[in-house]
Amino acid sequence: MTAGKLYQQLQQQQQVQLSMCSLKGSLLTLAILTLISFTYLSFNSLHSSPSPSISASSVSLLPATETTTKTVVVDVGDGENDEISDLYHSPRVFKLNYEEMEHNFKIYIYPDGDPNTFYQTPRKLTGKYASEGYFFQNIRESRFRTLDPDQAHLFFIPISCHKMRGKGTSYENMTVIVENYVESLIAKYSYWNRTLGADHFFVTCHDVGVRATEGVPFLIKNAIRVVCSPSYDVGFIPHKDVALPQVLQPFALPAGGNDVENRTTLGFWAGHRNSRIRVILARVWENDTELDISSNRINRATGHLVYQKRFYGTKFCICPGGSQVNSARIADSIHYGCVPVILSNYYDLPFNDILDWHKFSVILKEQDVYQLKQILKDIPDNQFVSLHKNLIKVQKHFQWNSPPIKNDAFHMVMYDLWLRRHVIKY
Ligand SMILES: *[C@@H]1O[C@H](CO)[C@@H](O)[C@H](O)[C@H]1NC(C)=O
Ligand SMILES: *[C@@H]1O[C@H](CO)[C@@H](O)[C@H](O)[C@H]1NC(C)=O
Ligand SMILES: *[C@@H]1O[C@H](CO)[C@@H](O)[C@H](O)[C@H]1NC(C)=O
Ligand SMILES: *[C@@H]1O[C@H](CO)[C@@H](O)[C@H](O)[C@H]1NC(C)=O
């Protein structure tokens, strides 16, 4: 089904309701629909089983209305005719709600702060914190920005931790700088005080991430923090905060796909042994003949892209938590078409409330490391092929662009924010 068709359905539903009841009733229905989709998506994010099964089919909430009325064809003009895929927890709600977001979502960016220091503009669009840079750049290039705060659903606090680190600011000082900046916005503008920050958000991909907000208790408690360190067992608050995917761009080699016959290695991992689970992974599997586990890191910059090329030849890429649970390895695996094996406890996967990760990855607990080979060998070929095919379909969601394009990482983050927007102001 095309986005155009769906939009048309929405229009039809509205029209039917308009003729039956009042405009008020129709708006109420829309509000309820939005509420249902939000509740449903949030509920789904709670739903995670450790089994790598790809079964569970999605439930559609919306009644089929193909047969109702013939009305004006609305061309939403996105030029993309994706079929609705069950990669999403609730595909039809996602399509409809995404369209609504594209048309209506408005963000106000506070203009304060010297862009030559830590504010407003990104440090760079490359390296392991590229996601932060892209967000800062994309939000300005996008249609979501409004210069009228009264139009805004959400308020962006544009201070970059990555840029502070670039200027050698200590972690302690970062917290103080964020605190002073937010306090100055609270004193100068009336918007924060309306909800004590509940319609404000902060974005960082830097490791210090959630910690940089520690100086402002309401920034932690009420505001939405979009961060690359979404571990449930640290400061990240599930359902409120947003997991930002860590993507190391630009990618050294093109995206993988339709290449399962070349994927002859069962599993691959190479990296720093900087966490308990990585030490165990290396210790248990380093000499295995089917799992390609290197206890020494392969330098990305040297060795003729040896590290990246391994992803093309492998079925399953092991993604154990490091010093931070998140790492660019997950996005690398997705890009190169190697099914990620998430090996970590308490981790809020990016877009977990939108995408059904069980359809394109294998999610294991750390204790599964000892049975890793058997678990992967037990996954039938047809299931691997299905995981791989789905993985190729989600590649676009883990890719940043400038300017941003439909369904890319930026728009997925915006959708997560849209789901969390505050609709009532005082
Ligand atoms: C931290 O802030 C203090 C006080 O402003 C300053 O003297 C010091 O140089 C700063 N240190 C770093 C590493 O930014
Ligand atoms: C918001 O509330 C704080 C704390 O009560 C106050 O200090 C600040 O002046 C208020 N901001 C505005 C713009 O009134
Ligand atoms: C498989 O690998 C060979 C040799 O490296 C390469 O020439 C070929 O294009 C690959 N096939 C696919 C579908 O990527
Ligand atoms: C792997 O091989 C090396 C070199 O032979 C040996 O020192 C090490 O103990 C082996 N590791 C395991 C887990 O068997």
Major sheet description: 6 strands, parallel
Small ligands present: 2-acetamido-2-deoxy-beta-D-glucopyranose
Note the total helix count: 14
Tell me the distance between the termini: 40 Å
Strand element count: 11
Quick check: average pLDDT?
Answer: 83
Protein name: Exostosin GT47 domain-containing protein
GO molecular function: glycosyltransferase activity
Subcellular location: Golgi apparatus membrane
Family: Belongs to the glycosyltransferase 47 family.
What can you tell me about this protein's structure?
- The protein has 426 residues and is an alpha/beta fold.
- It has two domains: 105-245 and 401-423, no CATH class; 250-397, Rossmann fold.
- Helices cover 37% and strands 10% of the residues.
- It has 14 helices and eleven strands.
- The protein has helices spanning 3-20, 23-46, 91-104, 130-141, 161-166, 171-188, 191-195, 217-221, 276-285, 306-312, 328-336, 372-377, 381-394, 409-419, and strands at residues 107-109, 145-146, 154-156, 200-204, 224-227, 242-243, 265-270, 291-294, 314-320, 339-343, 362-364.
- The strands form two sheets. Strands 2-1-3-4-5-6 form a six-stranded parallel sheet, with helices on one face.
- Helix 1 (3-20) crosses helix 3.
- The longest helix has 24 residues, at 23-46.
- The chain is globular and about 65 Å long.
- Residues 1-7, 14-36 and 38-81 have low confidence and may be disordered.
- One 2-acetamido-2-deoxy-beta-D-glucopyranose binds at residues 258-259, 262.
- One 2-acetamido-2-deoxy-beta-D-glucopyranose is lined by residues 186-187, 189-190, 193.
